[in-house]
Structure formats: structure tokens, C-alpha cells
Amino acid sequence: MRPHYIAVLFLSLLSRGAHATLRVRQVATLPSYIENIAVRSNGHLLLTSFPTTSSIYTLDPKVGQSSVSQLPPIEGANGITGITEVSPDVFAIAAANFSLTTGAPLNGSIAIWTIDFGPKIPVLRKIVNLNSALLLNGLTTIPGSPSLLLASDSFLGVIFRIDITQSTYDVGIQDTLFAPPQPLPNVGINGIRTRGKHIYFANYAKGVFGRVPISKTASATGAAEVLAQVDPLKYKIDDFAIDEEGNAWVAAHPNALYLISTIKNANNKKWNNANPRGIETNAMYQKQVPNSVFCKYERCEAAHKNLLENAPLYVGAIVLGNVARLDALTMNVATGLYLGLRVVYVALYVNTVNRRLSYLRTLNWVASTAILFTVIIKAGNKMASQDW
Ligand SMILES: *[C@@H]1O[C@H](CO)[C@@H](O)[C@H](O)[C@H]1NC(C)=O
Ligand SMILES: *[C@@H]1O[C@H](CO)[C@@H](O)[C@H](O)[C@H]1NC(C)=O
């Protein structure tokens, strides 16, 4: 097998939320491809792969290649797919013995395990065998339900619910959007992630990215909805992560990364047109969108108000300058500079979250106000020196 590469994406952010520049850097080379990545609290990565890799690779991305190592093998498995953190430094994994001829797990070989990194030597524990599963793929937790795990089955097109403390499992969520396309075998539901009151999913061979509202006990509380449709003939969508602003970063075969925003839809496309500026309306938006997005909205509002507040001074300065017949060059330079500074002002206001950088905006405001006063004073001086 050819060596495969793991690359870590670094976001250089102009501001939080602006995905301005993406820089890709190679961190290490591993002997097999990577199915899934989990990040430990110490920053180390846990990497899964299948088939013919019966243990987890670990890697410190700050150190790179020399830090790559392997944990002890998982009994009865030659491959690991999903991985997710179930409690601090305890990770659950989906493991199986994959047939080297068909590539599918052998009957009865699929199991959920946990790895506890608390003790000096990590402790492996088998939780439960999933005898009715065919191909476990994505694995995730439910906020507020620490004993439950959800696992997608790409062949069956269902999400299994696993109780870690009881060592039991059943089908938790079922939807036609999870199903693999015909003819079988084909891979349907792949990556899954919970966020808020929804489980998000990617259907690999159908190119559907969607979500289902769920309860704390992992039952669907409403209908599934499609958030994005990727052309499955061009790209197959796989696992993904959702950042704090609600953007899903979706890995796609063979070589793409999709960024799918869940924000607009997280608000259910609701816009209160009856009372768009009501205090209650604002409170409603505040509850429905991530904090960083709401703060940006507040800064937009503040910038808008500042433009309105400065408008009378601007209009006054222009009228006075014209009445006093200030020369065209002075007027053009003053208004051009003023408007240019105002545009920069809005950009600074909307994008700056750092307190120290925010003084740039204040400086900009002082400069633009000084221009208007210069025009007014010039106009006053000219009028005072003329006979009326
Ligand atoms: C997987 O199954 C095959 C066939 O039954 C068996 O020979 C092999 O030892 C199994 N692998 C592991 C890791 O248990
Ligand atoms: C695996 O199990 C399924 C259903 O339990 C059965 O239909 C199938 O024949 C089995 N396959 C093998 C290779 O034993």
C-alpha cells in the first residue's frame, strides 16, 4: 500500500469567522490511510484506519513524524472506523474484523470498545458486540446523555443507539435519507455529529448533507431535512466536524473539503418581518445562533448607528462648504477621504473582536470627524472674510 499523508489545516483568521486563508501543512506520513481523527485534551491526535490496522495511531501534531506510535491491538479486529470522546480522555471506537476479499466486516465481528487514557497504560474495554450491524462508520455522543453513543451503519442506513453503562444497543434513528443507493452493497450514511438538538449526517454515495432533530434519549423528534446536496458523481462526502460557528467541515473523496454552513438553517430560515427590530426578536435570534454570530450582528448594528449619527455633520459640512464656495479640490479631497474612511470604519467595526485592535476604529472615527470639522472651519473662515 502506498504511504498516505495526513495534513492538518491551519486557519489564519483575519477575524474569528472569516475563513480568509487556509494553509495546508504536512504533519506526518502513515503506512495506511486515515479513517477518522479524534483530538485528546493534550492536543495529541488519535487516528483510526481499516483494514489491516488493528490498533490506533497516536500523533503529536506539534512534533510530527517522530511522535507517531501505535496503541496495543484491539482483540478480534483488523480495522477501526468511528472514534469519539465519551468522557474526559475516554474514547469510544467501532472496531471489526474486515474481510480482505469483500472489504466488509465479517459476521459477528463488529464491537464497540472504550479506551481510557486516564491510567498510565491506556485501558481497553469491550462494551458490546453489535451482531445486527453490517458496517459501523461514524460515531458520536449526545450532549447531556453521557452513557449514550450513536453509531451510523452505512449498509443498513440506520443509526444505532448504544448504552455504554448497560452494554446494550438498539436502532435509535431511522430515515430514508440515511439509506445507501441501490444496487447494494453501497455506502449510505457515513459521518454523524450532534450539535444542539440535532444530529447532522453525511450520506456518502447520495451526496446528502442533512440533519434530524433528536431528544436526549436519541429518538427523532421531527422529520429529517436536507441542508446541502453535493453531486455524488463528483465527490463522496464522508466524515466531518462542526466548528463553534456552526460550519460543517466535510471531508470528500477523492480530494476536497466542503464547508457547509448550518447557521441560516439553524435559524430555520425564520425572519420576523412583523417586528424585525423588536427587543424580543433580538432575544430570539440570540438564542438561535452561535454567540460569535450574534456579537457580529450587534457590531453591524452599532456601525450602522454610528453612520447615521455622523450623517448630519457630514451633510452640514458639505452644505457649508458649498455655500462658502470652497474650491472644488478641497471639497473633493475632503468628501473622498471621509467616505473612504467610513467604509474602512465599518469593516473594522464588523470584523474586530480584539479590544486593542478596536482602537484603530476609534482612531479612524477621530480622523473622519476631523475632516468634517476642517471643512466647516474653512467654510467659516472664508465666509467671515467676505462681504455679505
Ligand atoms: C478475522 O477473521 C479471520 C477469518 O475468520 C480470522 O482468520 C482472523 O484471525 C480474524 N482476525 C482477527 C484479528 O481476529
Ligand atoms: C451474515 O449474517 C447474515 C444475517 O445474519 C446472513 O444473511 C449472512 O449469510 C451471513 N454471512 C456469512 C458470511 O455468514
Automatic annotation (TrEMBL):
The chain crosses the membrane at residues 329-350, 362-380. It is found in: Membrane. Residues 1-20 form the signal peptide. One of its GO terms (cellular component) is membrane. It comes from the Eukaryota. The keyword Membrane applies. Keywords: Membrane, Signal, Transmembrane, Transmembrane helix. The keyword Oxidoreductase does not apply. This is NHL repeat-containing protein. It comes from Amniculicola lignicola CBS 123094.
